[in-house]
Amino acid sequence: MTLTAEKAYSKMKQDSETDFEVIFKEQWNRIHALLFRMLGDWAEAEDLALDTFLRLYHRPPRDRRNLNGWLYRVATRMGLNAIRSRNRRQRYEQESGFERLESSSPGNPAQIFEREQERKRVRQTLQGMQERTAQILILRHSGLSYAEIAETIGVSPRSVGTLLARAEAEFESRFRKIEGD
Amino acid sequence: MHLKDGEIKAFQDGELSSVERQRVESHLERCEQCRARSGVLSERAQRVHHYLSSLTPDLLETPQPAKLARARLEKRITQSEKERKPMWEKFTTTIFSRRARPALAALAVLLLLAVALAFPPVQAIAESFLGLFRVQQVAVVPVSMDSLPEQLGSSSTLETFISNQVDFESYGEAEAAVSVEDASAKANFPVRLPAASDGDWKLEVQPGGKMSMKVNLKLAQAVLEEIGRSDIQLPQDLDGADVSVDVPVAVQASLGDCRFDPEQANQPGVDPDDPSTWVGKECTTLIQMPSPDITAPADLNLDELGVAFLQLMGMNPQEAADFAKNINWQTTFVLPIPRENTTSRTVTVDGVEGTLIQRPRQRGGTPYVLIWIKNDTVYSLGGVGNISQAIQMADSLK
Predict the structure, then answer these.
(1) What DSSP string runs through A121-150?
(2) Global pTM?
(3) How far is B161 from chain A (nearest CA, A)?
């Protein structure tokens, strides 16, 4: 079968566009929710999720076989960077006498306060960890399988259990320290 | 042998194959120590899970639906494309980037010039551009960047087009040479170096290559349409033409710190074309290459093709026709430079007439490229700084 030139051309064009649309539809919610977990703010999470996909659009990885892994890696890295710079900003804001409330959510004020405090400690803990260690925890708790995690951070699936067990131990000890502060 | 933490963890997470699962299960049944360890790990996992679940969105905290997000992304894409440098700008930046690249990228560029379609993939280096036709002279076309089709800068279609339509063949890898004699022997032409310069020139022999394609006029026109220039007419006899370019071996000599660290340039967030990311700002390169051969059907209307090319560069049909009249397309390499921030003038160099192209002064000096052709060999000297020294250097070639 031979395609005419115009057909071949438009097919070529559509293929790359379709790939992008398919991935976007499949992964948008997961990436967005992943970043929300890390940041606790839908608007900020959306901003970074959009940037993640923008990067995919303009500068996709050369190896296209593992686009999902690439997306998670880029998104978690952006999320961790955002937490870091936010912590710097918050320190400044606290010092200068005001503190920004994270996105408002339903519940009674005491509960909200309680939960926000816990979320904050969790994020602080993650932020203090090595990037890869924090990534593993976030990815696992966002529902990724060992195989998907392995793909994302570039390790063999067999080592994910070990890394995860270590990451949990480290998380707990750091979390306790922060709680004790 | 006791179980490892990783095995226990994978077992608890249901991530083991059935064979492994049975092995772990039966071990746990008979090993008290591992059972205890398993308990510790699972309790810790539950606690960590509890903490991390605090990050899970509440039901009422609903995210944007994907459709809405897609619309916002579209907006961001449009915005970013406006902000992205046109490929044209990247090209001219790259002229001065002194980055040695294998001939393949240059071949893609030659093709583009040859079929007068559009601009090179970003990787191309101008020094290797000179291969078009059997080049005997250089003509500079000042191009207004505003009049270039915007899509030229971001046409991934164009890159896809090239990768689908063109065959590239490279004759090997770049190879270092220890002396001028060694380089001459490897490249099979007499290599010259400036007598008037301090320091040691590093020599590298760049492989030759061959690019070939059968022109598909409809595809080419479709690309023009895509970038919004369907008004440009390509010569009808271009269709089905076999075009091939033989790029000879080139020798690159470099002086000073010319390291280019691809690792650094490929870091996320680093624009590989941003001059401030280049390593080796104190670098002078001299490239020499016998004029390459381009093979195209004898009856191909080069003038018409040239006019199309000039129009694509932003000239109106009348300007293009006037300019093209004075150019012998068989023997001239037409080098487009941006009207706004690049200057060019004719200088006498190495006993012949050459072209000096300069970019605005930046940190570390004024970048220049000096191009001339002598005895069927194309020379290009690029660097940053003093022009009279550069000309002196070129004049002292031996």
Answers:
(1) HHHHHHHHS-HHHHHHHHHHHTT--HHHHH
(2) 0.46
(3) 8
